[in-house]
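Morning F.,

Quick status update on the modeling queue. The single chain you submitted on Monday has been processed. Sequence for confirmation:
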Amino acid sequence: MKEIKSEVVFRQYDSISDTPEQAGEGLEMAGKAREKAYAPYSKFKVGACVVLANGAIYTGNNQENAAYPDGLCAERVALFKASADNPGVGVQSVYVSCENGDNVSAPCGSCRQVMMEFEARQGSPVEIWFPGGNGTYLHAPSVSSLLPFPFKMEP
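Structure tokens below.
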């Protein structure tokens, strides 16, 4: 038997005003996108903001459907919009906003896998910012911090 250890380091900020300026702006934009979410079933509204390497900024929000698997998370809405308009341009950062009370609200597994493919395809990290509970925010320097064993891309 061989033991494999993995260390994950996140930075925690006590409030949005404690984050670096660009992160605060991204989180604010994600918050505005959250207000427009379509979440009549879960009542859990989520907004996302994606910043690309060329400076373009895209927002998205969760879009639910009565057939639950047919909805889409805010992160993927924003990422796919950005990619559709800017093919081949790298993703720098993803900001997530939701009303989560005292719970950490990291992106779901499907969103993590999609973000990981962007990271692998561009060969550079995608930083993720998301609610850490009780008004705090967590910063992951790379999607690999959230998804240590992703599906791998095959040519």
